[in-house]
Each structure stands twice: as C-alpha cells, then as structure tokens.
Design goal:
By secondary structure, the protein is α/β, with parallel strands linked by helices. The chain has 9 helices and 15 strands. Helix 4 packs antiparallel against helix 8, helix 5 crosses helix 6 and helix 6 packs across helix 8. It starts with a strand and ends with a helix. Bound molecules: nicotinamide-adenine-dinucleotide.
C-alpha cells in the first residue's frame, strides 16, 4: 500500500483534530507539524513521538512530504498554500480557502497547472447527514425546493482576524451549493458590530439561487445557545437537519400548503394545509473530518479532483467577498452571475425546475 507523508501547518484549535485523524488513517504518515507557538508543539510531543515538530513551516515543505494540511488563520492561507503548491505538495486548506477571490482563483489555477490536488475543508460536504440531505433533495423527495434556511449560532468563539461571516458562513454556503447543485446569482448581507467596534459578530445573509430558490443564512457569535440548524422547504415536504441533535439529525416533515383554484383565475385561490407524519431517515456513521481526509487521500492516489476542490473554494470565497461588501454597504444586493451563465457544479444534477407564480399567472 502506498504510504503518503503528511505535514500539517497550524496546531491551534482546529489543527489537532486534523492531526489526530491523519495519525489514525492507515496509509497516512504524520511526518511533520509546524506551529509558531512552542507550547502547542510541546503538547503534541508525547502523543506523536515520531513526528518532526518545528516552528518553521518551511520544514514541512521538504522532499519527504507528499501532502500539506493548512490550519492557520485565514490571511495566511494564500501565501502558505501557494508556497506548498510551488513546492509540489498536494494541499488541503481549512475553510475559507482565502480572503480574496483573486487569491482563490490563483490557487485553483496553480493546482491544475501543476497536476496537484487542492482541497478546501468544507467539512460538511463529507458529513453523512448532509450527504443524505443532498440525496433527499436531489431525488426530489420533498418536491421542488422553495427556500433554504440555515442558522449557525453560539456564544463565541470571537476571532481576531475575520468577522462572523468569514468564520461561520463558509459552511452554510458550501452546504447550500452542495445540496442544490448550483451557486447563487445574487447575494446581500446585513449585520451588526455588537461587541467589536468594526468587526461584525452577527450577520444575516440572503442568497438568490436560480429558479427563484431563496437561501438565508444567520450566523452569530452572540447567541445564548448553540444552534446548527438547516431547513429545506420543498413544495411537497420539508426537511430539517439539526447538527447538534445527539441522534436523528435529519427529519422529513410531510407538511405543506396546497393552493387550489376553482375558477382557473390566478387571483381566486384557496389554501389547504397538509399535516402528515415525520420520517427519520437512517444516516450512516463516520467522523466527517476523517471522511474528508480519506477523500483527499483517494484523490491524491487516483489523480481525481476533490469534491471540494479549489474551484469550489473559489465559488464560496466569491459569495463571502460580495456579502462582506454588502454588509459594509447597508445590505445592498450584489450580482454574482447571470443565471443563464450559471455553471452547474460538476457531477451534480441541476436544480429541479419550479414554475414560478408569475409563470403560472401567464400560462
Ligand atoms: N472545518 C471546521 O469546522 C473548522 C473549525 C475551526 C476552525 N477552522 C479553520 O481552521 C483554521 C485555523 O483555525 P483555528 O481555530 O485552529 O485557529 P487558531 O488561531 O486556534 O490556530 C492557528 C494556529 O496557526 C499557527 N500559525 C499561524 N501562522 C503560522 C505559520 N506561518 N507557521 C506555523 N504556524 C502558524 C498559530 O500559531 C496557531 O497555533 C481557520 O482557517 C479556521 O477557519 C475550521
């Protein structure tokens, strides 16, 4: 079996989760870890005695290393990843890929030119519950999607380098793109700087997907309870993914509203409410981060493109960049794409077509 040698840059809060998973995967060798803080390296020494621990990230870009995992603050992602790709390493970078879309584009192109795997840690795309949710939506089990709502709330952790949008919303944007198999055409965001004088700690993001699908994301560092909830409302059923539920994270509600018209006149319609049962689909187990790392390894060995590759990271960065501008301009709507020019994410079915109320009225 081919053994891949891994180097990790960044052993703060998230790095140790990646380090542990790499060390547990057969065929992956945790060869080196770099961090600027000696105490963080010291904390790893006992558990990983064979791993080279260093304060200099350049020691991780040496000949014996095949792949580099970057878990450092966001502003360092681009220079570190660029250097790693230039050194011929496959790279997995934590979300968000970069601070600017121009940087993300550069990395995606560079990885393709060099024939290297570049992957961004959109962890939820490897979460079995999210994959099950995607399958439910793409099979049409809930009918045509009307809107999607996400809430990612907690008290903290405040970050010094990025606002709440850049910290938390990458997950929800990547989940929405993933389950809908599309990317938004327009974005706007509003928020508040409740604690920090200039850094937004609460934000409400509105995404417009093709075919009239609305995406809404609420992210906050200033909430009393931890919430990780994702709701997809279809015209036949509704599904809720609750990531903090200890079990039964997915629930499909057979509920909806049916509009009928007796005269055929659009203005003359009646509503009836449908209250059906709740289905709890079985979701396979597995730690998403391990599944993500195993996918990265598979892609390196098979020369295939990661599900969350550099281009996927670019799509999310573009949304964040536009949303950040909107946030600082009182919520103005930013156009990302023409619907007609939309690139449907490779390997995924396009959104099912929904007849809009306006089209129905014209029919
Ligand atoms: N996927 C997820 O669910 C998830 C969760 C948390 C954090 N993250 C991401 O992980 C990344 C790191 O977040 P964190 O919470 O661990 O941050 P952190 O500040 O706790 O840790 C970052 C570490 O990087 C080190 N570092 C910085 N520059 C370095 C350099 N040039 N060389 C070597 N080490 C360097 C710092 O010393 C620090 O220990 C961020 O991109 C964040 O968005 C992802």
């Amino acid at each position: 079996m081919t053994e891949l040698h891994f180097g990790v840059i960044g052993a703060g809060y998230w790095g140790p989760h990646l380090i542990r998973n790499i060390s547990e995967i057969p065929g992956a060798q945790l060869s080196a870890v770099a961090d600027l803080v000696p105490e963080r390296l010291q904390a790893l020494r006992l558990r990983y005695p064979a791993t080279h621990l260093t304060r200099d990230y350049r020691d991780v870009l040496t000949d014996g290393i095949d792949a580099v995992v970057i878990a450092t603050p966001v502003k360092t992602h681009y220079p570190l990843a660029r250097e790693a790709l230039r050194a011929g390493k496959h790279v997995l970078i934590e979300k968000p890929l970069t601070r600017r879309s121009s940087e993300a584009l550069d990395l995606a192109r560079l990885a393709d030119q060099e024939g290297l795997a570049l992957m961004v840690g959109h962890t939820f795309e490897y979460n079995p519950a999210v994959v099950a949710l995607r399958n439910i939506v793409q099979r049409g089990d809930i009918g045509d999607v009307l809107y999607v709502d996400a809430a990612r709330l907690n008290l903290g952790q405040f970050r010094p380098d990025v606002n709440v949008l850049w910290d938390l919303a990458p997950h929800d944007i990547s989940i929405m793109n993933f389950i809908l198999g599309a990317e938004p055409t327009h974005v706007s965001a509003r928020g508040s700087t409740c604690i920090h004088p200039t850094m937004h700690d609460v934000a409400y993001l509105e995404l417009r997907y093709p075919n009239g699908v609305l995406g809404h994301v609420h992210v906050s560092w200033l909430e009393p309870a931890k919430v990780r909830r994702f709701t997809v409302v279809g015209d036949e059923k509704m599904v809720v993914y609750n990531d903090v539920a200890p079990e039964e994270k997915l629930r499909i509600y057979d509920k909806g509203v049916i509009r009928t018209t007796s005269s055929g006149d659009f203005a003359d319609f009646q509503l009836s409410y449908h209250y059906g049962g709740v289905t709890i689909p079985a979701v396979p187990g597995g730690e998403p981060l391990k599944i993500e790392l195993m996918h990265f390894i598979d892609c390196i060995l098979s020369g295939t493109r990661p599900q969350s590759d550099g281009w996927s990271g670019l799509r999310v960065t573009k949304v964040l960049e536009a949303a950040d501008k909107s946030l600082r301009n009182g919520g103005t709507r930013k156009k990302l794409h023409d619907s007609a020019a939309l690139e449907i994410i490779e390997g995924q079915a396009p959104l099912r077509r929904r007849v809009t109320a306006a089209e129905e009225a014209l029919a």
